Amino acid sequence: MCDHNIESDGGSRRTDEIPIRRVGAEYAQDAVCILREAAAWALSRGIVVWRTDELREQDFREAALLGELVMGFSDGLAVATMLLQSSDPLYWSEIAPDTSLFLHKIAVRRAHAGRGWLGRLVGFAIEDAQRRDLGWLRLDTLYGTPLRHLYEQHGFSVIDEPPVMHLGRAMIRMERPVCPGVAAP
Predict the structure, then answer these.
(1) Which of 38, 95, 127, 133 has the fewest beta carbons under 10 Å from its own?
(2) Is residue 148 domain-resident?
(3) What pLDDT does 10 receive?
(4) Residue at 61 is within a domain
(5) What is the mean pLDDT of the segment spanning 47-67?
(6) What CA–CA distances, in Å, run from 178 to 30, 93, 130, 156, 175?
């Protein structure tokens, strides 16, 4: 089932109070469903965002157990997801763990696209980084797609370097300071 309703969790948490929050492993399937929906939509436009083997429910269960799975809710349904991690040895090996937050696997259900969910997810990451006294948000995304421009609209800048190849895809790295006006390290 891909429509986990927060109120079926006993109704103890209201989504109008906490529209974006870290979630437990019981939301892993919802996250994968949202990501697969977004990946299928992008593929219909000729963009391979994620391969099926990159969207395994077990990986998201493990991320949830580490406190890395974040979901956004609308009317009690999970509609947006991301992984918010304290390290990224694949794309950001030169950045020490626990010095930045890394945003991965960001997606929104198509029915909720264009409603500001990316901004809310980035805002959640900024607040989390501020609580941890971290100065930077970082991510990787596909080179040559509209995704770069979406992230630029939310304060991210491309690192001036050639794209990195991973799993046959050209990737770019982007970062943004948690507090405006901070220079890149």
Answers:
(1) 133
(2) yes
(3) 38
(4) yes
(5) 95
(6) 28, 20, 7, 10, 9
| pLDDT at residue number 2 | 56
Token pair belonging to 45: 């436009």
Q: What is residue 128's predicted lDDT score, i.e. its pLDDT?
A: 96
**Three-class HEC string of 51-64:** CHHHCCHHHHHHHH
In a domain, 185, yes or no: no
Given the structure tokens 């979406």, which residue do they identify? Answer: 150
**Angle, in degrees to the nearest 10, between helices 57-65 and 28-43:** 130
Decide if 74 is inside a domain. yes
pTM of the predicted structure, to 2 decimals: 0.88
Question: Exposed, middle or buried by CB within 10 Å (0-12, 13-18, 19+), for 40?
Answer: exposed
The total domain count for the chain is: 1
Q: Does residue 85 contact residue 104 with C-beta atoms inside 8 Å?
A: yes
CATH number, position 99: 3.40.630.30
